[in-house]
Amino acid sequence: MKVVSAIKRVPEDIQTRLKENFNEVEFLFCHGIEEAERYLKEADVFITYGEDLNPERIKQARQLKWIMVLSAGLDKMPFQEIQQRGILVTNVRGIHAEPMAEYAISMLLQVSRNAKAYVEFEKNHEWNRRMINQEISGRTMVVLGTGAIAQGVARLAQAFRMKTIGVSRSGNSKPHFDETYKVEELHQVLDQGEYVVAVLPSTKDTQYLLNLDHFKAMPDHAIFLNMGRGDLVQSDVILQAVQNSYIAHAVLDVFEEEPLPEDHPFWEEEKVTITPHTSGQSPGYVPRGFEIFEENLHTFLNKKGELKNKIDPKRGY
Amino acid sequence: MKVVSAIKRVPEDIQTRLKENFNEVEFLFCHGIEEAERYLKEADVFITYGEDLNPERIKQARQLKWIMVLSAGLDKMPFQEIQQRGILVTNVRGIHAEPMAEYAISMLLQVSRNAKAYVEFEKNHEWNRRMINQEISGRTMVVLGTGAIAQGVARLAQAFRMKTIGVSRSGNSKPHFDETYKVEELHQVLDQGEYVVAVLPSTKDTQYLLNLDHFKAMPDHAIFLNMGRGDLVQSDVILQAVQNSYIAHAVLDVFEEEPLPEDHPFWEEEKVTITPHTSGQSPGYVPRGFEIFEENLHTFLNKKGELKNKIDPKRGY
């Protein structure tokens, strides 16, 4: 049994632990696909971020029975070839919930509490107590999405004694949400959205779902945060929303075009805070991913139980 | 019955609500002590921040039966005269717990997640994904203090799935702390303190309680946050701790000298983040203070029940 990993810089302690826990398995930890490619034809299991596979490589990997994707996104996987060969695919769905929830709360606190102004005061050696720092505690948050990440945000928001409202296709009630509504009811709840957090994936239903009327419906002290996908709303709509003071601020981690072009007006807009698609980044990412892998490897070797986060190659998720 | 308030800028809605709810009471909302002083001799109840009273004014206030202090600090109250006259004193103890807990979590997130660097990238229109953002989730927090504010911080920390360790004089277990220790045991727990939050008041026991050895005992990635009192530790000790990398960063809201002098080395130290004693500031402060007052006014008028936050003038707390 041979496991080939194309994940760069897997920490030594993880490599050692896997080798110790699975004596019968040969592990090859490679530094990226260029190195891993040489061993593909012997691999029974392949560990990847999912962006380096193509039909040709699947063909090369004659022994391949299982692909472990250390990512939630699977857009680039050659599912047709995978399906034909009956290769198993699992991913790390849910792994982003904790860092992304922490990101959202962190950014909302930062904007509400004037972090940028204090950075400036510090630079100027200025003892300035005139800022009014808003609290997030006790306010109302509307989350667009009610999945694992959305629930993670709502869970923390509730710890801050916020009221949490979730909006999803079904409108079904979900943990950590005080109330949930259907997307069609979005307009009814936006006037409560002092904090509006979008964690929607990009699908035909969510593309450009938000328009200027949605921002007009929010309170004028609202802070909008998007860490889902950049095509939820046009950049220009966000600019109009903040420049006309329909809302107070926008925190953006995702954009229509990434990297955000150097001359994009967002950079200069005071009421926009930009992070470079880092909401899901975490030093705990690889360790957590390999924990899921290890659990699945036990299942795979023992040939009983259900693999975690198994993907249906027909649907692609 | 006359209530005189020296609190500046009491929101209209609070004034209206009190007048409506207490028909039998005459309220005089004054803009500070200069204006309030004129009415002191008729006041049955006086509302103050507690810094404007002196023995002379207590003497003038011949009718005074109750002083409501809209503050937690009572250092400047003329307790001798108050005690002689048998005047009741209440304060707003506990009112800082929520904003200060939010402040602490906000600042720890901000430092752990490199907020200052992202502010800089934004200024430079720089899409930089190379920063490693540490998570607070799952880490360990040591809180010096286990009172209302400390518990508020620990409660939020637990929501982030942090382990919380409290240190107090008694070492008694308290809500939201996984473990509690006595001050004498401080050294044993500091090596676990990835986040060390100080919320101790200034007493003879806490003055200069921390020395360089304490910082040496913390992990070198520790972030130290002081929002208690500035005389917990010498400025120079903090500077040495960060400059010698005994700890990674210090977040300071309180200082030995306030305002922090313009030429103080803290301002230029990259590993120090300064806020100008604003951790307890909150736009909800006055409303929450008047909620406590209103509750107490009912008790006071009905002459039954126990006043909230009643102070013993002999002890001064």
TrEMBL record, chains A, B:
The keyword Oxidoreductase appears for this protein: yes
Superkingdom assignment: Bacteria
Segments forming domain D-isomer specific 2-hydroxyacid dehydrogenase NAD-binding: 105-279
Annotated SUPFAM superfamilies: Formate/glycerate dehydrogenase catalytic domain-like, NAD(P)-binding Rossmann-fold domains
Keyword NAD among UniProt keywords: yes
Gene3D superfamilies: NAD(P)-binding Rossmann-like Domain
GO molecular-function terms, A-Z: NAD binding; oxidoreductase activity, acting on the CH-OH group of donors, NAD or NADP as acceptor
Domain D-isomer specific 2-hydroxyacid dehydrogenase catalytic: 8-302
Keywords carried by this UniProt record: NAD, Oxidoreductase
InterPro entries: D-isomer_2_OHA_DH_cat_dom, D-isomer_DH_NAD-bd, NAD(P)-bd_dom_sf
Family membership noted in the UniProt record: Belongs to the D-isomer specific 2-hydroxyacid dehydrogenase family.
Stated name of the protein: Phosphoglycerate dehydrogenase
